[in-house]
Structure formats: structure tokens, C-alpha cells
Amino acid sequence: MSNESLANLLKEERRFAPPAELAAHANVTAAAYEQGAADRLGFWAEQARRLSWETEPTQTLDWSNPPFAKWFADGKLNVAYNCVDRHVENGLGDRVAIHFEGEPGDSRSLTYAELQREVSKAAHALTELGVRAGDRVAIYLPMIPETVVAMLACARLGAPHSVVFGGFSADALATRINDADARVVITADGGYRRGKPSALKPAVDEALTRPGTENVRSVLVVRRTGQEDIAWHEGRDVWWHDIVDRQSETHTPEAFDAEHPLFILYTSGTTGKPKGILHTTGGYLTQVSYTHHAVFDLKPETDVYWCTADVGWVTGHSYIVYGPLANGATEVLYEGTPDTPHQGRWWEIVQKYGVTILYTAPTAIRACMKWGDDIPAKFDLSSLRVLGSVGEPINPEAWIWYRKHIGADSAPIVDTWWQTETGAMMLSPLPGVTATKPGSAQLPLPGISATVVDDDAHEVPDGAGGYLVLTEPWPSMLRTIWGDDQRYLDTYWSRFEGKYFAGDGAKKDEDGDIWLLGRVDDVMLVSGHNISTTEVESALVSHPKVAEAAVVGATDPQTTQAICAFVILRGSAAEDEGLVEELRAHVAQQLGPIAKPKRILPVAELPKTRSGKIMRRLLRDVAENRDLGDVSTLTDSSVMDLIQAKLPSAA
Ligand code: WT7
């Protein structure tokens, strides 16, 4: 971004007060903000008591060597004990921990007592395979209960896991195995995806032929599909059921230091080799547990919680595995895609289990919008009482649709801003406290310090835009980039002295609430104004004919950059002559003439990463008539051929 501060274009005046009933019984009230502000460290020390420590910490934060934080450093605990055993010891062994729903329709439920037995057996099996505290274990699995069991078994042994999303290629897996120097890989024959078995084991076999993966001595294989004719490497490959099933069902957990590594998770970032984000034990578990309790208002006795993310992303780590299980929640785990075998599959699952709290991503909400209002209307969604969003800014119209068609116009929406690096939620409304605003993550959570600054690191006034920064360390922060402290310093701590640079553009509204405006790389410079792609996209999506939009700045001789928009039309909308003009006029009316797109192209699909983020970089290549860069992280690279085919030759 240049020195010109981000134009503050979008005016969104709608407000939604928390439901009175929810507010009256909310887990967290406005007092938490005061407590967090008055004594931040005292606040977190108190939250750490949510956990069961073998040795209670006496220190809260050690910031003597910034930005390398230590939280609760003299405490000791076991994460798996906290997520499983202690609930059984507290008499909750019969409570369902996981309702698993397979894509083909198979289902099974595991109680906390069953989970304890499975995790214990898996921990013994890993020990038999030579896994010791500190050894890294790569996990490459579909969304099945064994994935959660495997992660908890690693945590139980103090062996940091590195979960690699099952949709990633052999190459991506090999790079990650190599970087973390993993000793064991846990995988499956395959999983179910879009109505058919999709193999995983062949990618592991291929990855392990690559240089740098020689230290992998065992591959533990879960049988999920049973249909693949898989290659078998005697002496290296072991079936899960052969080694896990025969182990003892009891296992004594060992307590580890609060700063013992819990996991490494790779983020691709926009350039360069993936960064291994390192998270540790005590601070991480404290913040995921607290935020899951506070932001979802979780009542573990009665709620049925469902996070639709994949465990391969941080959302799955923090809000499928560690947060909900630390809190003794009952949750749904779904293996497949939202439209298999039909576009109402998610709503059918909500109805079947009586889901009360749903946590999903804007990209999924926009897909459901596109499929039509009549689909969710066929199911009983009345159990839902809190709705969450994460992953990118949610366009106000998608927010309104989510509230109206999924939340019966009453469930509060919590738009949670955070990152792989932050480990847990950082900004979000509180469902019993905040009057929500469609499209805004609003405020730092209690105990969190964040603001928006300009190029010179000065906090911007209300009504102005700039960069989101975190101004104080937080318990679940990344500790470093695995094996690369310098890159940790350079990437996050060098842009603004003493502040964590998140890489997101943001603005403060007149009330001081924060609106995220997308990655800084996605801000456009048009005739001397910085304009956020997010705001132009939201203006387009607010038009009744548009389901989804992606906006990029393309080099332009007159205006530095020109706004170029790619739109997906709603089901019935026709792509006629007047449409483009109508949409341009609509944006001008919503945001002002400066934000009017120079070009608008209706397309059938948008290029997305596997975690659902739009790859604007590729659209910029198209808009500027360049050869496409790397398309390997796209879910479907043929999307780009379709888009290019629509393009008139000159930009
Ligand atoms: C980036 C982090 C957090 C888990 C999933 C993504 C964007 C995330 C929001 C939100 C606006 C958001 C940011 C952030 N983002 N949540 N509620 N509003 N933007 O984790 O892959 O590490 O991506 O996702 O740009 O920096 P991630």
C-alpha cells in the first residue's frame, strides 16, 4: 500500500442485537473486556486454569527475548489428558465426543470413554513404532475419527504432528515431510470425496521416493475405503488395525513443559517455500479453549457443535480437535463435500444431529446462496443458535443470507478473524454481548490487543484505513517458523517495530470497530486511491444477480491500476448486454464512482485454493494478459481455461 490511506468506501448500517435469551445466559459478558484490559496477563493466567495442569504455572508471559514468547513456561501438562481423560475422570465418559458422518452415509459416534481407549491404543502403537517425545509425525488422512485419534496420540506422547491436507499432492507432502524431518507418516488407503473413493496411500508412496524423506521409517495406514489395490512396502508399512487394535486400552500420559512443541502446520503464503508455523502446548490450549467457550457460547451439556473445516487447516486443529475437546464438547465430524450426494447434505446433517453451533467459511456460504434458498428451507434448522464464519472477509450480503436462511433471522453470527499464525481467534463479536454488523469482525477478543495503523505505524483514527497489527503477545501465538527464526522475524516483526504485522488491510469505522479488507497484496491503487478488493466484491455481491465476485487491479496507463471484476451470476440471471452496465452502476452507487470497475466479466467458476480462498494473483495474470503463474494449489486448474476462453484478446 502507498502512503495514501485505504479508502473507506463501504457504508453498512445494519445492526443486529444479541438475542435476549442468549445474552441473559451467555458464558461471557462485557465484563471480560474490562478484565482483559485492566490486567491482560492476569486475565490469561485465569483462563489457563480452565486446563488441568500437572504442575501449575507460576509465570504467565516471558517476553524477555521478543518476539520469542514463552507462556506459562514453568507449568507442565498433557494436551491429550486435557482433551480426553479428564472428562472421563469427571464422570462424562458416556458423553459423545464425536458424531462421525462419512460421505457415503456411514456413521458412528464415539464417547469420551471410547475416545480415551482409542487414543491410548494409538499412543502405544506409535511408541511401538519408535515414536518418542520430540519426534515429528506427518499425518495425511481424510476427515475420519482416526485423524483426531492420531493427532491426540501424538500430543499424548509429546511428538509434534504435521498434518498435511489430504487434497495436497505427493510433492507438497514430500516438501513438508522433509522440512519437518518426520519419522512416521500416518495415512489411509483413501477417503470418500464427491461420491467416490479417492486414494491417499499412493501419494505417500510417491512422496517417500523423493530426496529428503529417507528418515521416514514407518507408514501407518488406516483402512477407510478398502477398495484400493494398494502397494505395500514390507517392513515400512503397517495397517492401523493390525498394530493399534491389539494394544492396551490404558495409557499413562506424561506431562510436558508448557512450551513443548505441539504441532507444525504449513501455510503456503503467496510466495516462496511453505512456512512451518510452530505452536506449543500450554498457551495454545488455553486460548483455543477460552475462545471456543466464549465466542460460541458453548454449553457442553446441551450443544452439538459442528465445524465444517478440514483438519488439514488450522481451523480444524483449533476448532475441531483441541478447542472443542478441551471443553468437553459434543461435535460432528463430516468426511465429505457439501453437495454430495445432494446440495442439502449439510442441512440434512444439522437436522440429523440437532446441530446448535455451526462454524464455516464465506466461500461455502456463497456456494449455498448460489444453489438457492429453497435447499436449506427443506430441512429443520431450528436447533441452530450460533453461527460462525472464518477464512476471509464475509460479504455483507452473504452474512445476511447466512443469518436469514440458516439462522432463522435470529442466530448471532460471529465473524472470527485469525490466522494459522495466531493459532486461535483474535477478533470476533461475542454472541451475547455484541450488536453485530454484517461483514465486520469488529473487536479484539478479551485479552487481545489489536489495532489498525498507517504506513508510519501510527494508529489510524476512527473512520480511516491501514494495516491490522497485534500490539501485544497472546498465548496461542506462533513461536517461530520451524527451523527459520530469521524468517519469523522478517515476515511478521520487521514491518512495524514491536508489532505483529498480520498482512491484512483493515479499517476502523466511526465506532472504532474493525473491518478486514483482505490481504495487503489485494489492495488496488486507482488514481491515487487505495481501494480494497473486498469492498468492491461485497458491493457486487449485494446486487441480486451476483452470487460471487473476485476483483483485481490490472495495470492501467491512465489510472495506475484499473478495477477488473470476475462475477458468478445467480442461478436464473441472464448474461445480457445491459448486465455489465447495470453492475458497474450498482458499484458506483454503493461505493462511489472511483470504485466503478472498468471491466466486468461473468464467469462460471473462480479459481480457489483448496482452503477456499480466491487466487486473485491468477486473475491478475488473466486481466493483464500474462501467462499464468503456478496453478498447482488450485482445486481445479481447468477453471482458468474457462475464464481465459471468455476473454476478449486485449485488456
Ligand atoms: C488469513 C489467514 C483463521 C483460519 C483460517 C484461515 C483471512 C481469516 C478472516 C475473517 C477477514 C479473514 C485473513 C487472514 N481471514 N479469517 N473473519 N475476516 N479475513 O487461516 O489460511 O492462515 O489465513 O485469512 O486474510 O490473514 P489462514
TrEMBL record:
Q: What class of enzyme is it?
A: ligase
Reactions catalysed, semicolon-separated, are: acetate + ATP + CoA = acetyl-CoA + AMP + diphosphate
Amino acids binding Mg(2+): 541, 543, 546
EC no.? 6.2.1.1
The UniProt annotation places CoA binding at 193-196, 315, 527
- Where in this protein does the record say N6-acetyllysine is found? 613
Q: Where does the AMP-binding enzyme C-terminal domain start and stop, copy by copy?
A: 535-613
User: What's noted about post-translational modification?
Assistant: Acetylated. Deacetylation by the SIR2-homolog deacetylase activates the enzyme.
The residues listed in the UniProt record as binding ATP, with positions renumbered to this chain, are 391-393, 415-420, 504, 519
**What are its cofactors?**
Mg(2+)
Pfam families recorded:
ACAS_N (PF16177), AMP-binding (PF00501), AMP-binding_C (PF13193)
Please list the residue ranges annotated as the Acetyl-coenzyme A synthetase N-terminal domain. 31-83
Keyword list, A-Z: Acetylation, ATP-binding, Ligase, Magnesium, Metal-binding, Nucleotide-binding
Could you tell me which HAMAP family the record lists for this protein? Ac_CoA_synth (MF_01123)
Say which family it is in.
Answer: Belongs to the ATP-dependent AMP-binding enzyme family.
Protein name from the UniProt record: Acetyl-coenzyme A synthetase
